[in-house]
Write a structure and sequence with these properties.
It is a single chain. By secondary structure, this protein is mainly α. It is 52% helix and 0% strand. It has five helices and no strands. α2 crosses α3 (69-83) and α2 (43-62) packs across α4. The protein is elongated.
């Protein structure tokens, strides 16, 4: 088990060893076992922030190529929220990133790069679909009929 001795969690862990027992079957300490008392009030807020961010990223990714009216709306809303560069309220993208210790520009860059790759793949697949020859009717065989004059 590795813990940084300089962290407050490590010192808290050292004081309360009996509260943080390692699972004898897996040898793993679960993250919630390491939460210090100082983090107890922050956990629900972080969980909410993670849920909001995850939902926006899921909508962004799931509905990028969706052609339905609902899918296009969900994508536009998620894209607008993720790409907005303001942190006036706690539930805006930059405020959530700040609360989760994430770099909003890095997240935006990764999402933009992913979107560009997906759109390029969709264009390539669409172009390949259009170039595919249409097989003739009748099982793919071409019949030549000689006409008598």
């Amino acid at each position: 088990m590795l813990l940084a001795t300089a962290s407050r969690d490590a010192r808290q862990f050292a004081r309360h060893r009996d509260e943080h027992r390692v699972d004898p079957y897996t040898g793993i300490i679960l993250p919630d076992q390491l939460l210090a008392a100082r983090d107890a009030h922050v956990e629900p807020i972080h969980a909410l922030m993670i849920a909001v961010l995850r939902d926006a990223i899921d909508c962004f990714r799931k509905h990028l190529l969706d052609h339905s009216r609902r899918g296009r709306r969900l994508f536009r809303e998620a894209e607008a929220w993720l790409m907005a560069e303001s942190a006036h309220t706690p539930l805006e993208f930059e405020g959530i990133c700040e609360g989760l210790d994430l770099d909003p520009d890095y997240v935006r860059d990764r999402l933009s790069a992913w979107r560009a790759r997906q759109l390029a793949q969709a264009r390539t697949a669409d172009a390949a679909h259009r170039r595919r020859p249409i097989p003739p009717r009748g099982g793919g065989r071409v019949r030549i009929i000689a006409m008598a004059r």
